[in-house]
Amino acid sequence: MSRRTPSGDLLTWRLTPPATAGVVPFLIDWSTTHHPTDSGLPKAELTSFRARHPDVEAAQRSLSALNVDLDLTHGTTPHPHSRPEIHPPAP
User: CA-CA distance, 49 to 40, in Å (whole number)?
Assistant: First the structure.
């Protein structure tokens, strides 16, 4: 995948395939491209991230393989969902 920034720089990246557990994050490999946050954009702070999943054990196995520590609880809905809490950047 790739795109040009407004300044004309080319960003290229690869994504991992979607996970079957529903709350497992996808990963981005920026290869030799400079990470977009290196351009001085304002940065928001992720203060917490929680998720619910109908099969906590299956989701936890997938998360553990990636060494991801996630506040994961059992959800009664058939589809997993997550809730990030983000503190916006200072103006």
Answer: 25
pLDDT digits (tens, 9 = 90+) for 67-82: 988 889 998 877 778 8
Structure tokens at 64: 């553990």
Segment 41-49 long-range contacts (CB within 8 Å, at least 24 positions apart): 42/89, 42/90, 43/89, 44/86, 44/87, 44/88, 44/89, 45/86, 45/87, 45/89, 46/84, 46/85, 46/86, 47/85, 47/86, 47/87, 48/84, 48/85, 49/82, 49/83, 49/84, 49/85
Distance CA 53, CA 21 (A): 8
Distance between CA atoms of residues 83 and 78, nearest Å: 16
Rounded Cα distance, 75 and 81, in Å: 8
